[in-house]
Design goal:
Strand content: under 5%
Strand order of the largest sheet: 1-2
Order of helices and strands: HHEEH
Number of strands: 2
Radius of gyration: 15 Å
Helix content: over 70%
């Protein structure tokens, strides 16, 4: 029973972190959005996960690596969700 609550809490935290990653991706489209205190904090929090994926799939000026990173992240979340239920 304790493992269930632990996995559920982990799932909730990972869902919140996914939201932070999505906000970071959206902020990357806005010029100078990372220059604010909140923008810099969001970048610092999301960067440790997204950093290994940077530069994998770049076509011209478009970087499609957030799609790869989010896909892998979604796979991990689905695995945890199946483990809980």
């Amino acid at each position: 029973m304790i493992l269930y609550y632990f996995m559920y809490a982990l799932y909730i935290l990972l869902c919140i972190y996914e939201g932070i990653i999505l906000i970071s991706i959206l902020m990357s489209w806005i010029p100078n959005a990372y220059n604010t205190k909140i923008g810099n904090a969001i970048y610092q929090i999301s960067n440790w996960y997204m950093k290994p994926f940077r530069g994998w799939l770049v076509l011209g000026i478009l970087d499609f690596t957030p799609i790869i990173g989010l896909g892998i992240y979604q796979f991990i979340l689905q695995f945890i969700m199946q483990f809980i239920f």
